[in-house]
Amino acid sequence: MKLIFLLLSLLVNPYGREALSLNGNWSAILDPSDVGEGKRLYTDARPAGRDDFVEYSYDGALSLDVPGDWNHQDPQLRWYEGTVWYARHFQAERRAGHRRILYFAGVSQRCDVYLNGDRVAVHEGSFTPFQADVTDRLADGDNFLAVRVDNRRRPDAIPALRFDWWNYGGITRDVLLLDVPERHIADYFFRLAPGVPDRILAEITLSVAEAGQPVTVSIPGLKVRQTLMTDADGVARGSFRLKGLRRWQPLRPFLYAVTVSSGTDTVTERIGFRDIAVDGTKILVNGEPTFLKCISFHEEIPMEQRRACSPEDAEVLVGAAVGLGCNAIRLAHYPQNEYIVRLAEEKGLLVWEEIPLWQGIDFTSEETWHKAETYLREMIGRDRNRCAIGFWSISNETRPGPERDAFLTRLLALGRSLDGSRLFTSAFDVAYYRPEADEFRMEDGFAGQLDVIGINKYMGWYAPWPKPAAELRWNVFPDKPLVISEFGCEARAGVYGDADTASSWSEDYQAALYRDNLVMFGNIPNLAGVSPWVLYDFLSPFRQHPVNQGFFNRKGVLSDRGERKKAWYVMNEYYNER
Ligand code: GCU
After folding, report:
1. The whole model's pTM is what?
2. Total Cβ atoms within 10 A of residue 564
3. Domains delineated in the chain
């Protein structure tokens, strides 16, 4: 029951509902000392009487576009880490028999949401959606919406105090006022029955926990039309034998129109069906061994130094992965916006999606556990109908140890209880070359529980070559599929020569390093895929070299201006030949 209730907190398919978009131009007031709550910045107060004292005004305040990070919208905000109050008015009318749901696709990092002076939502986590039922607080006519946004880094947060990407702040994704019938379709999960050919499982949850409510599932492309009945929890379960199912395949995508209707509500969206499994050291998609020709990228448009937040932005990122010759993408290091996930699905790219449990996590904190649990539930709750997602990753470069092993074991068990239809993985940077054994090995008390092992390894950059690449052997979880989830080095676009000098920051050194790594990877017996780090140069406070970096991490195969570096051609050739 708890699980169903928690998943109910995310209305399924918000973009497929009747909605008023609250995107656009909002007023904003910086609040670096956090005095805003005391000053009641959640109201649009104006001086009424002669001796009224109101020490703020949204009229004449800063203006910020939503969706979008604040960093790129005003020079004073590029580095700002603190609180900003966003506010706007909007017109609405109350509708009897309807619920009105305020939906935020993402706010970075934590926020308090106020409607007409009442706090209606609190959320932490930059990269997952949240919502609030505001039916009873919506006014006929003018409404005032205020959002206190705080992007300060914290030791018990996820990610914690330091992370190798820009600490963007703001209402970085869409804001919608959804309109659903009182009795509505709250959630559904469609997937192929694992290991059973051509049978679809469906679980549909209505907003009212009551038995005997009819729910009809229609998939015209499969001649499926069946009415199910809900149980006492308001959940209807069904399975449909199929004839002539066309499965979603990497690079050969196929999606069906699926319509769910209850007595009062109807929702339609395009859903694909595929099977993903592990067989020994192979990743099977629809029973076919599939090598991941992957690339990692951040949710950032480097050319404009800002968060990606639109369908056009998704095309810049996903389109570049297709152009490189990929059949998969790793969304580093957090759930990225739905436009990116849905475009990957339309283009037939398998997706590795992860929660930002990235280095430096405090595994002893129960607060951190709650945040990790919430992140995993919200990521899976949002995207579990996206067949492109093959992998849920629950951590990146965490250090082995009793607290960390126990934390990740608990998190993996939660993940498997939420979704048994996908593979679970993590990325590790603890595979080391052992001279005494003359091979790469990895000791880790947790990793063996995963379906797929991700290894981040920067040979030739953070670690010198102990011997020629072709002579290096790997013995890392030899009975499981191993994906090189990161490799590469930095290079400044347009700098050439010195192919044997790391500190040259040249494209030639980067290309040579890629070639050497690909030779070494060819000797990994259980290699199931590679994902170079990274598609585009991206902003990071870690990267301070004034000439070579300028606060860009320059490991991109594409520069921050979208120029192809020589390493891009090395990967493109490697992928086209596989
Ligand atoms: C790490 C980490 C990345 C980081 C990269 C780098 O492996 O996962 O987030 O950007 O290395 O050092 O460039």
Report:
1. 0.97
2. 17
3. 14-181 (2.60.120.260), 185-273 (2.60.40.10), 278-577 (3.20.20.80)
